[in-house]
Fold this protein.
Amino acid sequence: MRCDSLHITSFRNHRDTLLEAFGAKFNIINGPNGAGKTSVIESLSVAALTKSFTNAADAVLVQTGASMYSIDARFTSDNGVPLGVQVEYTAGPPARKTILVNSDKLRRSSDLIGRIPVVALTPDDKIITSGSPDDRRRFLSLVLSQASSLYLEDEIELKKAVKHRNSLLFEFKQRNTPASVARPQLAPWTEVVTERSARVMARRAAFVEEFRPFLEARYAELSGGNEKPSLWYCPLGIEEPYELGGFRPLLEREFDRRESEELRRGTTLVGAHRDELMMLIDDKREARKFASQGQHKTLLVSMKLAEYQYLRDATGETPILLLDDVFSELDANRAARLLELISSPQYGQTFITSTTRESFDTLLASGDHANRLIRIGEGQIW
C-alpha cells in the first residue's frame, strides 16, 4: 500500500495543505518544532485507522477557529487498485463524522480499519514497554484489529457489554443490592463478556505465539544479538500456564470467585479488558521494571518492526510506516541500524518527520525519485 496524495483542510495548524507525488520509498518531512510535520502523518493515521495515533479526540484535531476538518487521501494497493478515502468531521453539538471510501459512505467507521495497514512509531509509544497493562492491551488491539475484522467486532461488542455491566454494578453498589438480586440482572451481560472475552483472549494468545519470532528476529538485528527479548500473554493478568481452549472455564470460575468483590467495588473485574502482555529480557527480567533506557528503546523499535512484518503477512498488503521524530530519540548506532533495516526491499513507503535532515542526506542525494524531501513551516509546504 502507498499513499499518492493528501489534501488536509482545517486540520491542526494546516488551513489548506495539498501534498502530491509522494515518494514510493522515503518521504522525509523536515521543519522546526511546531511547524505541522506530525500533523501530516497524523492525518494519514486518521485516513487509515479513523483516528490519530496520538489518541487525540477529533474535536482537538480541528484547527482553532474552524468548525470542521477534512482529509482527502488517495492510496494504491500492492496490486495497483486505487483507493480513495475522505474523512470529514464537524464539531458539535451534535458532532458528526463521515467517512467515504471510493465515494461510498461507510455505515461504521470500523469498516475502514484493516483496509490500509499502517504502523506508527512515536516517542510517546515508549509506554508500550514501560507503561501500564492498559497501554500494552491498546497495542494488542491496534495490531489485531487491523489484521482481523472478526477480532475487531468482538472487541467492540466486549466494550459495549462491559460498559452496560459496569453501569449496573455501580447502581447495585450505590443501593447495596444483595448478590441474589443482582446476579440474574447481571447474567445476560456476564454471558456476553464471557463469550466475547474468550474469543478475544484466544486470539491474543495465538497472536503472541505468532508474533514472538518476529520480535526476536528484529531485536537481534538492532542489538547485535547480545540479548534476547521474550513476550508472554497473561490472561486476566494471571502469570501461569494456560490452555488455548480453556479461557471460558477460566472466566466463569473467576466471575464466581469475584462476585462479591465486583458488587463491593461497582465494576467488572473479569474479562479480556484485564489482560496483561509481559515483556522480558533474557527470559528473566521484566522490561517494565528492569530494562535500561537503551533496552527500552531497542525493544520498542523491535516491537514496531515486528508489527510491520506481522501485518504484512496477515493482510497480504505492505503497511505504510509512519515514524514521528524517532531518530532524535535514538543514539547514532541505533538510528543508523534502523535506517539500514527499513531501507531494505521488504519495507515499503515510509514517512519520517525530523527537525534535521543530516541523517537522510545520503538517501536524498542519491537522485532516487522514490525518496522525497518535504519542507514544512507554519502549516505551509514547499
